[in-house]
Amino acid sequence: MPWIDSHCHLDAAEFDADRDAVVRRARGAGVGMLVLPAVAVAGFEALAALAHRFGVVYALGIHPLHVDAADDADLERLADALQLHRNDPRLVAVGEIGLDHFVPGLDRERQERFYAAQLKLARSHDLPVILHVRRSADGLLKQLRRIEVPGGIAHAFNGSDAQALQFAARGFKLGFGGAMTFDRALQIRHLAATLPAEVPVLETDAPDIPPQWLYVKAGERSQRAPSRNEPAELPRIAQVLAALRGWTPAQTADRCSANVCEALPRLAALMANTA
Ligand SMILES: [Zn+2]
Question: What residues are paired with 97 via a beta bridge?
Answer without folding.
Answer: 131
